[in-house]
């Protein structure tokens, strides 16, 4: 069933940018509004195809995946794990201090 | 003035007791040095793909069945997107619109409350943050990717007390199932509470406040009580409740705002393309059901009905899976469950310490059964049984050896007691004559003399029998 997609405006871009932790300049946000709008328009064209009898595909794997046995295998060494950390301390990834607020 | 009722729904996150993480083969062991149980999958390195741990699915299904849920034949993993230092991928793999289990219930015996379970879903845990090291926070990703089930109740609880009972009941269920170690301090059993109040008689729910990550049963009760009182004060003063997330400050004994609704997160859930639908067929569910250990309430009922324990004793014997197993084994070996339960309650339990799924039992079931059997055989008295138990604690010694070494068996030997009785009777001829002449109260005098000589270690039954025989009563 074709779905009428919502019209994108600057406030949507700003909201999504905030969720993605991106700081956009006004110019960038406006350019993004036009570009994303064009992409959505393309998707809108796709949605004109009648898919009412088609099961949604959320994965490209065919059939259910095999499950793993609960058996431990070595991962990365501590050094390898931290190799690409910009900063480390006390064996961990060091990040700017923050207060626990949870997700 | 309107009177209000508190309405509570709880979300419990319980760590599944697998050896490895839910989507990779890293160990889930607690307490390892930071970032030593990690791999490209749980670090969120590019190109790494998750592969589901089948045992995690089995444990999740076991938990869901125990709270009466139906299992969906197909469910889906979804990405919950947010930024946080302990979330390396920038999203948590969870389940959203298609959880694997739904529509269950937990019954609270003390409160008499039927609490509906909305859903149970699988997800991965985030890492752990260590604060207060200079200006930095340190991220340890050993815990990232640990399998969890989230069990979400309907808003069916009506007091902080009921909320605590619900959590204890759920914790016991998961503990007895071997699904979770019930360890609040180590974070393997965590709880968020949705709390609102409404005027009594009102159907519509009030604006709810979410209390986050409270790590003890006592704090859950205090946090909910405090929050309900805070909301009532706001409404009574003519104010409105703000929908927000609050934390519990255990030092001040108050809740504090973490995040208001305006800042509420938009998680942009979508199906995880890296994971195909989670298919759980009926054969798998039937197998999990068949392999599930007995639930605590079923154990209590069985201990009362088949082993003739009082409801209280049944409750005490099922306070921990290892205590229950110990009691059952000792009962089987000895044959009289009630006597075993009495001895466990009066002597053994005070020496038992538990940590998660493990318990330190001072003696073995075999030792306990043997001690009680020695009492049955008249070899030692009930009082001596306690002494024998004290000597057996922490040793692998046999009860019979301990009795022999302590010389206890001698004084309960009928022959030895008879010699002693004859001596006491000869030393107290006047009392013996009066007793034979019918002054029955003097019987106690002779029993007392024997007990004094044996320092209370003689079997009272043997003493009675021997006294009657020697005095011709």
Secondary structure blueprint with pairings:
The complex is a heterodimer of chains A (103) and B (473).
Chain A: H1 10-19, H2 26-46, H3 78-82, E1 88-89, E2 92-96
Antiparallel strand pairs in A: 1-2
Helix pairs in contact in A: 1-2
Chain B: E1 4-15, H1 40-43, H2 54-66, E2 70-71, E3 74-75, E4 78-81, E5 91-94, E6 101-108, E7 113-124, E8 128-133, E9 136-140, E10 147-153, H3 160-177, E11 189-199, E12 209-214, H4 217-236, E13 244-249, E14 254-260, E15 270-271, E16 278-279, H5 282-291, H6 296-305, H7 311-317, H8 321-334, H9 337-348, E17 353-355, E18 358-360, H10 365-376, H11 382-392, H12 399-405, H13 408-411, H14 414-427, H15 429-436, H16 442-453, H17 460-471
Parallel strand pairs in B: 12-13
Antiparallel strand pairs in B: 1-10, 1-11, 2-6, 3-16, 4-5, 4-15, 6-7, 7-10, 8-9, 11-12, 13-14, 17-18
Helix pairs in contact in B: 2-5, 3-4, 6-7, 7-9, 8-9, 8-10, 10-11, 14-16, 14-17, 16-17
SSE order of chain A, one letter for each helix or strand: HHHEE
N- to C-terminal separation of chain A? 36 Å
Into how many domains do the coordinates of chain B divide?
3
The structure class of chain A reads mainly alpha
Helicity level of chain B, as a percent range? Answer: 25-40%
Q: Uncertain runs of chain A with pLDDT below 50, 5 residues or more?
A: none
Put simply, the count of helices of chain B is 17
Strand order in the sheet with the most strands of chain B: 2-6-7-10-1-11-12-13-14
Write down how many β-strands of chain A occur, each being a DSSP E stretch of 2 or more residues: 2
User: What is the average per-residue confidence, as pLDDT of chain A, rounded to a whole number?
Assistant: 85
Main sheet characteristics of chain B: 9 strands, mixed
Structural category of chain B? alpha+beta
Mean pLDDT metric of chain B: 91
- Biggest interface and residues each: A-B, 39 and 64 residues
Structural shape of chain B: elongated
Cα radius of gyration of chain B in angstroms: 30 Å
């Amino acid at each position: 069933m074709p779905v009428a997609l919502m019209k994108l405006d600057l406030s949507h871009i700003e909201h999504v940018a905030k969720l993605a932790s991106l700081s956009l300049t006004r110019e960038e946000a406006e350019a993004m509004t036009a570009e994303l709008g064009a992409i959505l328009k393309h998707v809108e064209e796709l949605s004109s195809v009648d898919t009412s009898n088609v099961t949604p595909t959320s994965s490209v794997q065919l059939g259910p995946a095999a499950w793993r046995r609960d058996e431990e295998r070595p991962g990365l060494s501590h050094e390898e794990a931290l190799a690409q950390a910009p900063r480390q301390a006390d064996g961990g990834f060091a990040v700017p201090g923050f207060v626990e607020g949870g997700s | 003035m309107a009177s209000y009722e508190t309405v509570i729904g709880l979300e419990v996150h319980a760590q599944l007791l697998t050896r490895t993480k839910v989507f990779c083969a890293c160990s889930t062991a607690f307490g390892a040095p930071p970032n030593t149980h990690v791999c490209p999958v749980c670090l969120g390195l590019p190109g790494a793909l998750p592969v589901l741990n089948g045992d995690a699915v089995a444990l999740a299904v076991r938990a869901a069945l125990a709270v009466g849920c139906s299992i969906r034949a197909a469910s889906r993993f979804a990405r919950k997107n947010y930024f946080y230092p302990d979330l390396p991928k920038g999203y948590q793999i969870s389940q959203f619109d298609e959880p694997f289990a739904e529509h269950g219930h937990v019954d609270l015996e003390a409160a008499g409350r039927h609490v509906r379970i909305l859903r149970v879903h699988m997800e991965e845990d985030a890492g752990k943050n260590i604060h207060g090291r200079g200006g930095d926070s340190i991220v340890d990703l050993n815990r990232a990717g640990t399998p969890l089930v989230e069990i979400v109740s309907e808003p069916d609880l009506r007091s902080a007390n009921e909320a605590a009972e619900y959590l204890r009941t759920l914790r016991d269920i998961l503990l007895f199932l071997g699904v979770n170690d019930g360890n609040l301090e180590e974070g393997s059993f965590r709880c968020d509470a949705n709390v609102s109040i409404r005027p009594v008689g009102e159907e519509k729910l009030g604006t709810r406040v979410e209390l986050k990550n409270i790590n003890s049963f006592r704090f859950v009760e205090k946090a909910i009580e405090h929050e309900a009182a805070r909301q009532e004060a706001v409404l009574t003063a003519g104010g409105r409740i703000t929908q927000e997330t609050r934390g519990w400050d255990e030092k001040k004994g108050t809740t504090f705002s973490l995040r208001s609704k305006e800042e509420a997160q938009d998680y942009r859930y979508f199906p995880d393309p890296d994971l195909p639908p989670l298919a759980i067929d009926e054969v798998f569910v039937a197998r999990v059901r068949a392999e599930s250990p007995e639930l605590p309430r079923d154990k209590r009922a069985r201990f009362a009905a088949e082993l003739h324990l009082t409801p209280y004793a049944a409750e005490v014997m099922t306070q921990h899976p290892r205590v229950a197993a110990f009691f059952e084994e000792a009962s089987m070996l000895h044959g009289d469950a009630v006597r075993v339960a009495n001895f466990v309650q009066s002597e053994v339990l005070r020496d038992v310490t538990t940590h998660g799924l493990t318990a330190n039992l001072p003696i073995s079931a075999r030792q306990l059964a043997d001690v009680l059997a020695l009492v049955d055989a008249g070899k030692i008295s009930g009082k001596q049984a306690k002494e024998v138990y004290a000597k057996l604690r922490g040793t692998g010694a046999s009860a019979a050896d301990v009795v022999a070494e302590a010389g206890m068996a001698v004084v309960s030997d009928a022959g030895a007691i008879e010699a002693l009785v004859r001596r006491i009777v000869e030393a107290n001829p006047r009392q013996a004559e009066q007793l034979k002449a019918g002054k029955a109260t003097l019987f106690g005098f002779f029993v007392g003399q024997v007990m004094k000589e044996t320092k209370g270690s003689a079997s009272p039954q043997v003493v009675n029998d021997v006294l009657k025989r020697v005095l011709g009563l």
